[in-house]
Design brief:
By secondary structure, the chain is mainly α. It has a domain at 2-58. Helix content is 82%, strand content 0%. The protein has three helices and no strands. The longest helix is centred in the N-terminal third of the chain and has 32 residues, at 2-33.
């Protein structure tokens, strides 16, 4: 059951990334297909709202290992220098 949940989170992350990237397809359609004058910066928040959480969900194991490694390194440095 727990492994299935991890796969589901990874799938949701992939879907969010795909939707975030697809925003630029909508932008291209609106800009060049319909000829409307739209700024790319109006589409950027929607792109980032999909891509950033999607990548966090997809790479959560890697990010967790990196955070633990950084925390462990900070703890050993604090132990070597003494109490703060």
């Amino acid at each position: 059951m727990y492994g299935c949940n991890k796969d589901r989170l990874s799938q949701v992350g992939s879907a969010l990334v795909a939707l975030g990237v697809a925003v630029w397809g909508v932008y291209a359609l609106v800009r060049w297909g319909f000829g409307w004058q739209v700024a790319g910066k109006s589409f950027l928040p929607y792109h980032l709202a999909g891509v950033i959480p999607g990548m966090i969900l997809k790479r959560r194991k890697f990010l967790g290992r990196m955070i633990r490694k950084i925390a462990r390194k900070n703890d050993t440095q604090r132990d070597e220098t003494g109490p703060a």
